[in-house]
Amino acid sequence: MAQTAQAVPENAGVEASNGAAEPEMISGGHLVAKALKAEGIDVIFTLCGGHIIDIYDGCVDEGIEVVDVRHEQVAAHAADGYARITGKPGCAVVTAGPGTTDAVTGVANALRAESPMLLIGGQGALSQHKMGSLQDLPHVDMMTPITKFAAGVPHTERIADLVSMAFREALAGAPGPSFLEIPRDILDAKVPLAKARIPEAGRYRASTRSIGDPADIERLADLIVHSEKPCVLLGSQVWTTRGSDDAIDFVRTLNIPAFMNGSGRGTLPPGDPHHLQLARRYAFQNSDLIIIVGTPFDFRMGYGKRLSPSATVVQIDLDYRTVGKNRDIDLGIVGDAGAVLAAVTQAASGRTSTGAANRKAWLEELRGVEDAAYQKRLPRQHSDASPIDPYRLVHEINEFLTEDSIYIGDGGDIVTFSGQVVQPKSPGHWMDPGPLGTLGVGVPFVLAAKYARPDKEVVALFGDGAFSLTGWDFETLVRYNLPFVGIVGNNSSMNQIRYGQIAKYGADRGRVGNTLGDVRYDEFAKMLGGYGEEVRDPKDIGPALRRARESGLPSLINVWVDPEVYAPGTMNQTMYK
User: Fold this and answer.
1) Per-residue confidence at 18, pLDDT binned at 50, 70, 90?
2) Which of 173, 90, 180 shows the shortest CA–CA distance to 431?
3) Cα dihedral sign, 308-311-312-314
């Protein structure tokens, strides 16, 4: 491992007047930038502050873009979103005190979503430690519970070394966020470049594509070969590990019906004979083999209680702590989702029979359940009711999406509707906050997705409450010329909470603390230089979406939806069960 920058000898520098060589000096901020560059970081998301400006100066020299936003929560969410889109870690840089505390929500969301990012926070000068310097707070103590790694930098020479350490932790096992606090005098100081440890790109981290125990791979292959009614749930880690192609090959080669959740949505395209969505509960109750890949037994899975007690259950995950948590399993494999599935496919394909031919009747059985559920809901999706049925809105959005559309959901009840209907057409084209359920990720995810992939169309559905949290950074999208198609499902309420209050306390107390104003978000978009339209008639949704696309601007289509209609998940209060 390189101990110093390889191109810099010990006596590097300029010649002094007495003929002796003066060492080449480098500041802490420039060391940060060099370390980020070594990791492949090409953009930081930030809100400026006096504690961190030397990092900006270093980024300019290293060719790293500095994207400035209006709120530190947006910067952190954007770093999370950038990691999801690119497969590289994201980076946000914020100032000390309230700058760092504003970013806490974004970091916590990345932790639960297993998204690799580095947050760098400023701090008062180390020479003023415990003296009450401007914006001094115990940032490391606050960040430790919500990161995989949190540390302060004690000396300028150690800056790049600790940046590489933070990335190593962020990307080990199930990925997540890291935090570094850098005091201002440490950041601004200059040290001889030859003395600073700058780890060399690609040489300070191990491979993470583990397949676990080979004996377990063979055992899982054997279980599949002898299964008549298997199913697989492809979770977010399938996309995190960029294992989509391996998952597709696994499903098709072994003829296994597949369900998808989180970032795993889109692994199989709509219409694929192995792609199922609405028959999941039936499959979980009637399968003889259930394979859970890269998703925990958390509230979204009913803590594992929705799986048939007689089924053989296999769990594959990057994190050993997730395997077997909340529910006993028959086989657990800790490893990379794509690598494990590829290995199992190969192992099963080497058998005399893979059992694939015996599963035709099972697939037809599930397809019948799927089609019946779809037909039952279809009238709602075509409803001409006014106010607009949310099912009609999400149906129109699904019809609007193309192969290149990245879909982002940011909201409560309205996004619950979309989860049943909207189907991304390619891997990595679905983004939602993840299991923390954070509202306000939409605009920063749009920023990250469109910045990272300008060739892609970005379509975002917001609840009106969710958009309100980070909506001012719509101006950032205008400023950076990042067009997208935004839709606000507007019912002037935090409707997911409103339903629960009505159910628990009665209709006369159903409007306590959850009612919003009738805001014209289309006019808000226009005010900030974007495109806006208001929609009250369901037949106008599709044309409005197409006009937004053609505008070439950041857009908001304000769609008034029926506040008295709730998603089934909301009515079942499944998020609390």
Assistant:
1) low
2) 90
3) negative
CB 228 within 8 A of CB 358: yes
Q: What is the SS3 assignment for 9?
A: coil
The answer to whether residues 248 and 226 touch, using CB atoms and an 8 Å cutoff, is: no
List of residues 6+ apart from 181 with CB closer than 8 A: 100, 121, 122, 123, 139, 140, 150, 151, 152, 153
The CA distance from 377 to 336, in Å, is: 37
Cβ pair 64, 44 in contact under 8 A: yes
DSSP output for 523-560: HHHHHTTSEEEEE-SGGGHHHHHHHHHHHTSEEEEEEE
Query: DSSP string covering 302-329, please?
Result: GGGTTS-TTSEEEEEES-TTTTTSSS--
Q: Is the Cβ–Cβ distance between 460 and 77 less than 8 Å?
A: no
Rounded to 5 degrees, what are φ and ψ at 54?
-70, -25
Global pTM value:
0.93
Question: What is the sign, positive or negative, of the torsion defined by CA atoms of 403, 408, 413, 419?
Answer: positive
- What type of residue sits at position 257? P
Given the structure tokens 């309205």, which residue do they identify?
Answer: 414
Which residues are CB-contacts of 267 (< 8 A; sequence separation ≥ 6)? 234, 238, 239, 244, 247, 248, 258, 260, 427
Residue with tokens 């000898």: 9
Buried (b) or exposed (e) across 37-54, using 16+ Cβ within 10 A? bbbebbbbbbbebebbbb
DSSP 8-state class, residue 425? S
Q: Give pLDDT tens digits for 92-148.
A: 999 999 999 999 999 999 999 999 999 999 988 887 787 777 778 889 999 999 999
